[in-house]
Automatic annotation (TrEMBL), chain A:
Descriptive protein name: NSE3 protein
Pfam families the UniProt entry points to: MAGE
Gene Ontology CC annotations of this record: nucleus
MAGE domain: residues covered: 1-197
From TrEMBL, chain B:
Top-level taxon in the UniProt lineage: Eukaryota
Taxonomic path: Eukaryota, Metazoa, Chordata, Craniata, Vertebrata
Keywords associated with the record: Chromosome, DNA damage, DNA recombination, DNA repair, Nucleus, Telomere
Residues in Nse4/EID protein Nse3/MAGE-binding domain copies: 37-91
Protein name as annotated: Non-structural maintenance of chromosomes element 4
Oligomer and partners: Component of the SMC5-SMC6 complex.
Length: 201, 264
């Protein structure tokens, strides 16, 4: 049962959509419901010790899990499809913008920022295609971003924040370092962001 | 409505609006007015939050435009092109960036994420060939499965029929063999066991006994016990008439016990 669950989790993780406990129970554990937590724990151990992956519960109420990499980031080439790499590039730019702007941005502000990068959510992008869909649907479903409507706005506006997957897969400190590298400055240049990054690592 | 105006950090308009709301509320006596007041407070607090946010980032002066420019530089934007085509309309902005711009960005980005590598089955050393035939096979399978299913009900019936037929045929065949043996020499009784036993197959032996039993049941053969105690078999001529009937009355039921050891 445990190895079945391990395989199930690895395959489910391909699209980076978080895995629900209900799916695990239905597809793998089925009749062994009572041993659920034991099976999950064992699967987690195998994932960690054999694959170097961490099974993290990002929603303890609704029991939703993701897989992240436990190994320290290695320098050099990453085995990753080009499409995935490009999306991660865009994502990092967005996460950086959100953090540096105080952890929450209005959707209009985000689109404005993307325009500066020659990415126009209204138009088809030659790399990302339907950018609006990528940002508001795919990244949100994968829990990299979180979007909440701003009340009493007409037409409705949304705000964007980091999603739980982003919180686990990267950190404010890493993102600040990225911004610093890109701008050729020291991270301490942005005092409040720097202290916030230090506080949350 | 005057959101932008209120947002401006130099403006006290938000404070003024709040003060006025306070004054107005004293005159409220209907529920609808109170609801409007509540609505106003929500909007006001949102604006207040935004102002606070702006204050926060202003403290550390993050210039997103400069950040964007630096990102483009990192991605390898060609700036001379940019200056030349500044007059042209903004239809093809992507022209300014090299095609691997975002790829370069992504390579760098991966260093900042602890992303689990996506799991794929390793298909071995074969590269692009398998996918193509696989599709064809799948389509063929689906097509043939459809046909097979349609053929199944018809086929199944046939099979059942043919089972019976097979048995009947076998029985006939055995009858033929029995008759041939008997005709060759009617005086030598044919040992039952010699007849049914297949020295090479126990299963076949049992099958033979099974088929012979039909012959006996239908009155086409009879088994009698020979002098030496062993059963012998001989064909009967099925003839209509009373003789048959009287003989049919002398039927016996015999159970033959034969297991594999005995067979050997």
């Amino acid at each position: 049962q445990v190895s079945e669950l391990v395989q199930f989790l690895l395959v489910k993780d391909q699209k980076k959509i978080p895995i629900k406990r209900a799916d695990m129970l239905k597809n793998v554990i089925r009749e062994y419901r009572d041993a659920y937590s034991e099976i999950v724990n064992k699967a987690g151990r195998i994932l960690l010790e054999v694959f170097g992956l961490q099974l993290v519960e990002i929603d303890t109420k609704r029991h939703i899990y993701i897989l992240i990499n436990n190994l320290p980031r290695a320098e050099g080439q990453y085995l990753c499809k080009d499409k995935e790499k490009e999306k991660m590039g865009l994502l990092l730019a967005i996460l950086s913008f959100i953090f540096m702007k105080g952890n929450s941005v209005k959707d209009s502000a985000l689109w404005e920022f993307l325009h500066l990068l020659r990415v126009y959510p209204g138009k088809q992008h030659n790399v990302f295609g339907d950018v609006r869909k990528l940002v508001t649907e795919e990244f949100v479903r994968q829990k990299y971003l979180e979007t909440t409507p701003i009340p009493l706005t007409d037409p409705p506006e949304f705000k964007f924040q980091w999603g739980p997957r982003a919180e686990k897969e990267t950190s404010k400190k890493d993102v600040l370092n990225f911004v610093a590298k890109i701008q050729g400055k020291d991270p301490t240049f942005w005092a409040s962001q720097y202290s916030e990054a230090r506080a949350t690592s | 409505e005057n959101r932008e105006a209120m947002l401006s950090s130099k403006s006290n308009r938000l404070t003024e609006a709040l003060e006025e709301a306070n004054r107005l509320f004293d005159g409220v006596c209907r529920a609808r007015e109170a609801a409007l007041d509540a609505q106003f407070l929500v909007i006001a607090s949102n604006i207040g939050k935004e102002k606070a946010n702006e204050l926060h980032s202003e403290m550390s002066a993050f210039d997103s435009a400069a950040f964007a420019e630096d990102l483009l530089t990192f991605m390898g934007i060609n700036r001379t092109e940019l200056e030349e085509t500044d007059d042209s309309a903004d239809d093809e902005p992507c022209v300014f960036l090299p095609s691997d711009a975002w790829l370069k960005m992504g390579e760098e980005a991966l260093k900042y994420f602890r992303r689990a590598p996506t799991f794929h089955y390793m298909m071995g050393s074969f590269k692009s060939e398998p996918p193509v035939p696989k599709q064809r096979i799948e389509r063929q399978k689906k097509a043939s499965r459809g046909k097979a299913e349609r053929a199944m009900p018809a086929q199944l019936k046939k099979m059942e029929e043919s089972h019976q037929e097979a048995t009947e045929k076998e029985v006939e065949r055995i009858l033929g063999i029995l008759q041939t043996y008997f005709e060759n020499d009617p005086n030598i009784p044919i040992s039952f066991f010699d007849f049914v036993i297949d020295p090479n197959s126990f299963a076949r032996t049992v099958e033979n006994m099974f088929h012979v039993s039909f012959l006996v049941r239908d009155g086409l053969a009879k088994i009698k016990v020979h002098e030496d105690g062993l059963p012998v078999i001989e064909p009967l001529k099925p003839s209509g008439g009373e003789e048959e009937d009287s003989r049919a009355g002398v039927r016996n039921q015999v159970v033959i016990n034969l297991n594999q050891k005995a067979w050997q």
